[in-house]
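Tutorial handout. Part one gives the primary structure; part two gives the three-dimensional structure as tokens.
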Amino acid sequence: MRKLIIDSTPNSPKILFEPDTSMFEISGESRPENASVFYKPVIDWVKELEAYFKQNDAQIYAPIIFDFTLEYFNSTSAKFILDFCKKLGHLRTLGHPINVRWHYEEDDEDMLEVGQEMSRMSKFSFEFVKEAIL
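Part two.
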């Protein structure tokens, strides 16, 4: 599996998919000017992950954990985040141990509810991680 690293900007999240260190993270704010262009490499990466599993008949014994630590995302980004989560859910139904940890600040009920809705629409359970506000 190849790594994918996209640095954050004031309008786009950090993407860190680092198979060698088992770090898979999307964090920050997501309101890029063109969400389809921004998220294309992310969607392509998860398609490559599926192809990798098929090609190598990969049996992964440790789960792949994707951490979502988003402060804000707009409706256009939500569509691509949901597409990504659905693809992860599909891989999970094929027997690959993939988990999602959805981080939210303890006073941000909206982000918790959005994560719960993403989980429901992706058809697999996320772990919800409440972060204390410092």
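Part three, for discussion. The first strand starts at residue 4 and ends at 6. The domain at 4-131 is CATH 3.30.750 (Transcription Regulator spoIIAA).
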